[in-house]
Each structure stands twice: as structure tokens, then as C-alpha cells.
Amino acid sequence: MVRKILKFGEPILEQKADPVTEFDTPELHELIAEMWETMYAAKGVGLAAPQIGLSKRISVIDISVGEDESKKIVIINPEVTSSEGKQTGEEGCLSIPGFREPVTRANKVTVHAHTEKGEQIELTGEELLARALLHEIDHLNGILFINHLSTLKRDIIRRKIKKLQKAGEWD
Ligand code: NI
What we know:
By secondary structure, this protein is an alpha+beta fold.
């Protein structure tokens, strides 16, 4: 089932999500299947559980956007264990549609996480994958890409969103 993606303004998007404590359950597998379905329907490269209204530390990422099955990544309770370098590139978010801004992030990161079966994994990503991992892990900590922008840029975006909300074009 494709779930509704919550937009900026929903409090859950700015709250720290809760760790997953039970793995390999039918509920967890079903939730992750729904996250994939929702992400692909929206043509995104990543989706975090809070974006569909669930305070759980789960993100899915596919930088091939459905072109390459081997690129599908599920990270549960992820932690960044190392990062190096810098990259700056345009970033957007399914919860802040219509806005894209350059964001500077580490160029290479290593992440420790659990799979949906509860196995521990470590993965390293560079460039776009590093960006996607960091963006999705941020979501689990209640951080959105606009939090990485200057106060000025963030306020401009916030004001534009307020106008869209008033016009009923943001929900
Ligand atoms: Ni996002």
C-alpha cells in the first residue's frame, strides 16, 4: 500500500525517531514493503519511516530509483561510524516537494545498521550514496535538509511553505 508522505510542518518530521527493538516480524517486513512502494511511487531515492508518520529508526534507499535491485538498502537503527571529505550538491526531500538547494555533506561515510532480519551490517557509501545515507539518517534524528542551509535561505523556504499552506496547496 502506498502511504501518504507527510510534508514539512508535521511535528513527527522534526522529532527523533525510536529505535526498532523487534526484528524479522511480519509487521516489520510489511512496513518496509510499504516504504519501498511509497518511495518508488514518489520517484524518490530514499524514505524514512517518520515521513509516513511512524517514529521508527528505519530508512530505505535506492540511488538507482528502481533500475538496479542490488542497489536497494534498508537501514535500521543506523549510526554513522566514520565520515570523510566534503561534497556539495543539490538536495531535495519528498517531505519538502518543490524545493532544492545545495547542501554540503561528507563525501564518504561508513554506517553501522541492522537489516530487517536483525543482522548487523556495515556499509560504506561515497558521493550520491553518502549523501542519501546522511539525508535519511538525519530524518531519523528529526533533521531536514533545510536545517543545513543558512538561516536566511531556510527562512525564505519556510515563508514560501507558509504561503502554500495558507493557499491549501501543502498537505
Ligand atoms: Ni528527505
